[in-house]
Structures are given as C-alpha cells and as structure tokens.
Q: What sequence folds into this?
C-alpha cells in the first residue's frame, strides 16, 4: 500500500500499464483477460481506437470552459441520449453518485411543487446508489452506511422485487414523492427482479403522482442486452441516471428526465463545474457512436445468453452453487459461502473477476469481447469455482 494514499481500498497486488480490447498488461508484461471492465465502465474495452482518436483530438482543441457558456458537444450528447432513452432533457455531472444526487434533488423539487414539506423517497433493500451522504442514505446496505450516521432523512427502505410493499408505502404516506430503484441490483449481487416488477412500480407511481427514478448506472448502455435495462419491460421512468460506461473511463455522469421532472431544475438550483465539459462530452459521443454502429446491445444479449448457458452447464449441478443468473453481459454466480478468495485464484489464472455481496461472483466483461474470450472466461471461472468448493484453494 502506498503511504501517501488514504486507505480507501483493499487493492489487489497488480498494477496495469496498458490495455487493448479485453486485455490488460501489467508492469511485468503479463496479460490478463478482463471480466470486470473497471466495474462495468470499459464497455468498449481498453484503448479503443475510436475513443483514442476522439480524446486526443479534443485534448488538442479544447478541454474545459465551464457551464457558464454553451458547450455544443454537450448539447449533441444530450440530444443523442434523450433520443435513445425516450427522455426530454439531460443534466451532466462527473459520476454515478452525482447523477443520483441530481435525481434526489429533482424529487425534492417535485415535493415542493406538491407542497410536501418532509418528502420521502422509497428505496430498496440491497440497493447501491453511491457514497455521497445523500446517495449513501438511499443505499440499502448497513455496512456501507456504518460510521457515517446521522444519515440524510427522507428515505424509506422496502424489500426489492416486492411491488406490494411499494404500494403499501404509497397508500400509507402522502409524503412519498418518488421511488428510486435499480432495474437489476449490481452491487447487491446481480439480483434480477421478476418480470412485471418494474411495470407494476411504474403503474403505482403514476397512480400516486410519485416520480419513478431508475438508477441505470451499472445496467445502462447496452450492458443487459438493451440500451437500458428498463427497456426489457418497456418501462419509461420519469428520471434515469447514467455513468460508468458512458465515458468508457473518462469521468461523466448524466441525469435524464422527462415530463414535469425535466423542467424542475432551473438556473441556480443545481450545477457542476466539470459536468459535460468538451472532453467528457466528446468521449461519450464516441462511445455512443461505437455502440450504435456495432449494435452492442444485440451483441451483449447474444453473448450473455451463451455465457449464461455455459455457466449453467458447468456449474448448475455443483454442490455449493446456489444459482447462476444474468442478463446480457451482467452475470452472477452465487455460492453458499463467502468466496472472496476466488478473486485471487482468478488473478493467478490471469483472469480478472469480482466478488460482490460476499458470495456472488460478478462478471461484467467488455461488450466487445470475442466468442473465444467469452469461452475462456467461462472455462476459467467454472474451473476455479469447482476447485474452491472442493477446498483446494
């Protein structure tokens, strides 16, 4: 550990100095197959030529001016995103947490318009929305919240994948002004709700005048086999948050809104110094262009189905494997015990994986991986999971 860094992270004993496609190369020249994508960030993999060209060209032209002035690239990006998502307007920031902060502030402004003085936002157990104080308070994980009390008030937790619980909360409190959910819980362990869940929540929000906020920070931008995970059910939220894959590593977040919610933020009510600057906007435009040109939503759906079938065939009947699940290239293998050791086992095999919620192997490979690379991930993970469960780690 570096003596000059705060101890925020338990980092693995490897440092990378270059990458290409789905591969990273460490300081000693060893190559690793990346099945994490920087936690669903590098959907186009590493050193993508279109992104390299866009960033280098923009860096030689203009990096930043601030939002005191018009930014044409930001305007182009907003138009492209709202068209893809079926929304009306966009606000740009630098991260997923900031995008969710903007969404929470929109909900508070919605409350003011309804004359609700102590607004409540319904959130889900097991959720993750960020590490700022407000998004931390919205997160349904006591471990992440520990030590940061008192939390920001105004959030009510209900079980995930439980429409009735949301309906009951809406009926029992006139102070509920929004429901904030992940279409699939990523940090919570790749938890995929039942079909009809999001649609049911949409109906409840409409009936009670509450905003539906969908956190698509991990699920959005082709990851699940659709441009946005809510599109699997044909659901349109009032507010949608994005980040991660939007810049493929260049920090950028977005809060999209439609209808009444799109007009609530006015000059002076919110802002971001760096949000949507020329460099970040140019990078995000390049990402969207590649995703559209290569139909990476369809590619993720096809390849994800193939990988899921491979994991089910290789691990479905193995004692200790609770379930194998996924949607697109968002895959999870849940074991009956803590399995953090698998990360180092995979590292030794030069494959990068992640374990979340203590017992779930989370796989988020780049959307551009080949069939052979996908097969290598499946084979390696199946092998080390069986070895781990046999006690040979």
A:
């Amino acid at each position: 550990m570096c003596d000059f860094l705060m101890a925020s992270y338990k980092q693995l004993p490897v440092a990378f100095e270059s990458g290409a496609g789905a591969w990273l190369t460490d300081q000693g020249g060893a190559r690793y197959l990346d099945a994490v994508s920087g936690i669903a960030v590098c959907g186009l993999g590493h050193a993508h030529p279109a992104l390299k060209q866009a960033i280098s060209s923009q860096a030689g032209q203009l990096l930043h001016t601030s939002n005191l002035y018009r930014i044409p690239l930001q305007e182009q990006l907003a138009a492209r995103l709202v068209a893809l998502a079926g929304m009306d307007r966009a606000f740009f920031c630098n991260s997923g947490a900031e995008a969710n902060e903007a969404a929470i502030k929109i909900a508070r402004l919605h409350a003011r318009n309804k004359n609700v003085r102590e607004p409540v936002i319904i959130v889900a157990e097991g959720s993750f929305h960020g590490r700022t104080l407000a998004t931390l308070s919205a997160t349904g994980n006591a471990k992440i919240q520990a030590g940061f009390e008192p939390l920001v008030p105004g959030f009510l937790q209900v079980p995930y994948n439980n429409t009735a619980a949301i309906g009951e909360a809406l009926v029992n409190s006139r102070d509920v002004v929004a429901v904030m959910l992940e279409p699939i819980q990523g940090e919570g362990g790749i938890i995929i709700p039942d079909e009809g869940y999001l649609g049911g929540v949409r109906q409840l929000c409409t009936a009670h005048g509450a905003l539906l906020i969908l956190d698509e920070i991990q699920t959005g931008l082709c990851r699940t086999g659709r441009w946005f995970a809510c599109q699997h059910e044909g659901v349109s939220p009032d507010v949608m948050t994005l980040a991660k894959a939007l810049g493929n590593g260049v920090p950028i977040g977005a809060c999209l809104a439609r209808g009444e919610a799109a007009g609530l933020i006015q000059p002076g009510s919110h802002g971001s110094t760096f949000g949507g600057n020329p460099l970040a906007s140019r990078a995000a435009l390049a990402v969207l262009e590649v995703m559209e040109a290569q139909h990476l939503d369809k590619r993720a759906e096809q390849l994800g189905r193939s990988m899921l079938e491979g994991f089910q065939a290789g691990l479905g009947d193995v004692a200790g494997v609770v379930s194998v699940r996924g949607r697109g290239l968002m895959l999870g293998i849940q074991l009956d015990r803590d399995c953090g050791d698998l990360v180092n086992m995979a590292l030794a095999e030069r494959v990068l994986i992640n374990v979340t919620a203590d017992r779930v192997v989370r796989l988020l490979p780049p959307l551009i991986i080949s069939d052979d690379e996908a097969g290598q991930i499946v084979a390696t993970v199946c092998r080390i999971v069986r070895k781990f469960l046999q006690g040979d780690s």
